[in-house]
């Protein structure tokens, strides 16, 4: 798991929105090598979400990949439909990206069946506040040398998961919870404290 | 890829350190004990006595991302040169062990033990409980004869006690985190953890509820009773997904749905005597003769396990606790939590309420836990009797 990294046990790829935009998407758009270079680039519309296994980077029950943003998000058996409002991704107080949430539906529009497959699609925001796909990217004046070619600046990075698996918590979160028994013992301690004047 | 920058090891962006218990024990702690080099040295050595829990976040930061749990190695000091107890006091408070140590298994055998500790501010008898929790893992270096034997529940318990005495010295690896308040964030929306689980009609709430999905003991109980969580859920009537029902569902389904143990009817919160004896659970109630009656009653129930389920009593209790958790704190609720004396100045309302709930469930859980660990009904009730007659009674009586 975690791609071709040689990290010791216990490390998992579980990036925050900010990390995805700053460390991966920004570098991809600037044609800088991503470090670690673990997120593959896929043609966005070629695959249905269940086909991502083995093609995208799998981390827990989430899949990550780069893609070029397109207007239509139709794949072989269905399409991605945006839901909700776009979220801003911030870093150090300034907006650096945009996070769109999409749901996969099987079939043709208007007679499609919604699925549990969810995609978070991250876009770069340029300094004028527009998305870099809007064409103003040519004028970007990044500290990192932004490539002037528009082709390279409409990259998105995507996270795909099935929502019914509580996917945002992909790693044995239960270790970090107190079990029911722990809670019980914890509360029993109080009663010990009350009645026992501590040996 | 490289995991070192300018000669300094670092965590590449996007990665979180969240090892399994097996990884902690078998990789990190084993290497630490053997003084072997660890590839990426992210777990620091900490002198537990010199570090307050709120400073751990800064000290034990790994990588750049947000973190909910922190890890460190600690070398346990004995409290007294001659004894086996460990000194876990800091300048501001102390770590106090709670519950029973849990055995950690890999696929093959037992590999170590986990102790759960809670941080109290202040000094020993008067400490104020905090939300800081520590899981302290130690390696299991028992003779292979023991570990190779079939790891039954009873074995684990006896082995736990034997290793308790011997292993109070040396390196341990610790995970520190802040306790989550489920009754507070249950209705608070998706947040980070929700992840879209709210739309599927409670399915996620049930399957992901850490209160019992992760709890071996409760799994054992359910297994013992020959039912799965799913069946239990379908049996119980649909109810609002309030915080309280979330808290109570496991026990309610285990007990109420099964008619395994019946509590006396609960008319109203103001029926103080009734409320008290049932809240504190039969076995913990003190010497007003209730214990014997309750036990006899419970034994009846055991011999006739298919009598009335008594679910109404529990539903009543459920409602009571629900109103309690919703913050309607008045004089009568004090009677719910034992005798009210412990609800001293440093207990906030929430804690009081939760303690009430937890305590009422405590003896029941212990009972059933005993049942799961033992082999049959006899064990259950001998456990219950000994618990009632010796330990609890003597502690509880004022």
From TrEMBL, chain A:
<dbReference type="InterPro" id="IPR036093">
    <property type="entry name" value="NAC_dom_sf"/>
</dbReference>
<feature type="domain" description="NAC">
    <location>
        <begin position="7"/>
        <end position="163"/>
    </location>
</feature>
<feature type="region of interest" description="Disordered">
    <location>
        <begin position="128"/>
        <end position="150"/>
    </location>
</feature>
<dbReference type="Pfam" id="PF02365">
    <property type="entry name" value="NAM"/>
</dbReference>
<dbReference type="GO" id="GO:0043067">
    <property type="term" value="P:regulation of programmed cell death"/>
</dbReference>
<keyword id="KW-0805">Transcription regulation</keyword>
<feature type="compositionally biased region" description="Basic residues">
    <location>
        <begin position="137"/>
        <end position="147"/>
    </location>
</feature>
<protein>
    <submittedName>
        <fullName>NAC transcription factor</fullName>
    </submittedName>
</protein>
<keyword id="KW-0238">DNA-binding</keyword>
<dbReference type="InterPro" id="IPR003441">
    <property type="entry name" value="NAC-dom"/>
</dbReference>
<dbReference type="GO" id="GO:0003677">
    <property type="term" value="F:DNA binding"/>
</dbReference>
<dbReference type="GO" id="GO:0010089">
    <property type="term" value="P:xylem development"/>
</dbReference>
<keyword id="KW-0539">Nucleus</keyword>
<dbReference type="GO" id="GO:0048731">
    <property type="term" value="P:system development"/>
</dbReference>
<dbReference type="GO" id="GO:0005634">
    <property type="term" value="C:nucleus"/>
</dbReference>
<dbReference type="GO" id="GO:0048367">
    <property type="term" value="P:shoot system development"/>
</dbReference>
<keyword id="KW-0804">Transcription</keyword>
<dbReference type="GO" id="GO:0006355">
    <property type="term" value="P:regulation of DNA-templated transcription"/>
</dbReference>
UniProtKB/TrEMBL annotation, chain B:
<keyword id="KW-0804">Transcription</keyword>
<feature type="region of interest" description="Disordered">
    <location>
        <begin position="182"/>
        <end position="213"/>
    </location>
</feature>
<feature type="compositionally biased region" description="Low complexity">
    <location>
        <begin position="268"/>
        <end position="286"/>
    </location>
</feature>
<dbReference type="InterPro" id="IPR003441">
    <property type="entry name" value="NAC-dom"/>
</dbReference>
<keyword id="KW-0539">Nucleus</keyword>
<dbReference type="GO" id="GO:0006355">
    <property type="term" value="P:regulation of DNA-templated transcription"/>
</dbReference>
<feature type="region of interest" description="Disordered">
    <location>
        <begin position="268"/>
        <end position="287"/>
    </location>
</feature>
<dbReference type="Pfam" id="PF02365">
    <property type="entry name" value="NAM"/>
</dbReference>
<dbReference type="InterPro" id="IPR036093">
    <property type="entry name" value="NAC_dom_sf"/>
</dbReference>
<keyword id="KW-0238">DNA-binding</keyword>
<dbReference type="GO" id="GO:0003677">
    <property type="term" value="F:DNA binding"/>
</dbReference>
<protein>
    <recommendedName>
        <fullName>NAC domain-containing protein</fullName>
    </recommendedName>
</protein>
<keyword id="KW-0805">Transcription regulation</keyword>
<feature type="domain" description="NAC">
    <location>
        <begin position="11"/>
        <end position="179"/>
    </location>
</feature>
């Amino acid at each position: 798991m975690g791609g071709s990294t040689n990290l010791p046990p216990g490390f998992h790829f579980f990036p925050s929105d900010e990390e995805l935009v700053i460390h991966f998407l920004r570098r991809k758009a600037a044609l800088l090598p991503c470090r670690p270079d673990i997120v593959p680039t896929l043609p966005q519309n070629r695959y249905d979400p269940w086909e991502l296994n083995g093609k995208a980077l799998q981390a827990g029950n989430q899949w990550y990949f780069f893609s070029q943003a397109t207007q239509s998000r139709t794949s072989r058996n269905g399409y991605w439909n945006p839901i909700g409002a776009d979220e801003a991704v911030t870093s150090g107080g300034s907006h650096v990206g945009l996070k769109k949430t999409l749901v996969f539906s099987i079939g043709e529009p208007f007679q499609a069946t919604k699925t549990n497959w969810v995609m978070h699609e991250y876009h770069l925001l340029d300094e004028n506040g527009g998305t870099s796909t809007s064409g103003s990217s040519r004028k970007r004046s990044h500290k990192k040398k932004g490539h002037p070619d528009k082709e390279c600046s409409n990259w998105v990075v995507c996270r795909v998961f099935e929502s019914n698996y509580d996917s945002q918590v992909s790693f044995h979160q239960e270790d970090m919870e107190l079990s029911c028994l722990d809670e019980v013992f914890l509360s029993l301690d109080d009663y010990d404290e009350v009645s026992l004047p501590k040996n | 890829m490289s995991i070192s920058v300018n000669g300094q090891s670092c965590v590449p962006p996007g990665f979180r350190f969240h090892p399994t218990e097996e990884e902690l024990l078998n990789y990190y702690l084993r290497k630490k004990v053997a003084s072997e080099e660890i590839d990426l040295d992210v777990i620091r050595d900490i002198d537990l006595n010199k570090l307050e829990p709120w400073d751990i976040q800064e000290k034990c930061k790994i990588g750049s991302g947000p973190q909910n749990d922190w890890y460190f190695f600690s070398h346990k000091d004995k409290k007294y040169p001659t004894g086996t107890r460990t000194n876990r006091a800091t300048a501001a408070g102390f770590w106090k062990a709670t519950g029973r140590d849990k055995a950690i298994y890999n696929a093959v055998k037992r590999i170590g033990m986990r102790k759960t500790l809670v941080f109290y501010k202040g000094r020993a008898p008067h400490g104020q409980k905090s939300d800081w929790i520590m899981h302290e893992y130690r390696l299991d270096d028992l003779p292979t004869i023991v570990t190779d034997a079939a790891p039954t529940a009873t074995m684990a318990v006896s082995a736990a006690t034997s290793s308790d005495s011997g292993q109070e010295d040396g390196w341990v690896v610790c995970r520190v985190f802040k306790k989550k308040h489920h009754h507070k964030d249950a209705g608070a929306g998706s947040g980070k953890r929700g992840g879209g689980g709210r739309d599927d009609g409670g399915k996620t709430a049930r399957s992901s509820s850490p209160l019992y999905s992760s709890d071996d003991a409760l799994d054992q109980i359910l297994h013992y009773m020959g039912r799965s969580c799913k069946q239990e859920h379908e049996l119980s009537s649909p109810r609002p997904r309030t915080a309280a029902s979330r808290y109570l569902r496991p026990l309610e389904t285990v007990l109420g749905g099964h008619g395994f143990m019946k509590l006396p009817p609960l008319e109203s919160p103001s029926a103080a005597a009734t409320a008290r004896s049932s809240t504190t659970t039969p076995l913990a109630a003190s010497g007003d003769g209730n214990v014997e009656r309750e036990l006899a009653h419970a034994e009846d129930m055991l011999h006739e396990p298919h009598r009335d389920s008594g679910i109404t009593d529990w539903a009543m209790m459920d409602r009571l606790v629900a109103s309690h958790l919703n913050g309607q704190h008045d004089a009568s609720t004090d009677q719910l939590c034992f005798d009210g004396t412990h609800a001293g100045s440093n207990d906030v309302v929430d804690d009081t309420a939760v303690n009430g709930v937890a305590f009422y469930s405590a003896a029941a859980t212990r009972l059933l836990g005993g049942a799961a660990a033992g082999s049959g009904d006899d064990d259950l009730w001998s456990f219950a009797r000994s618990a009632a007659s010796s330990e609890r009674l003597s502690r509880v009586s004022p």
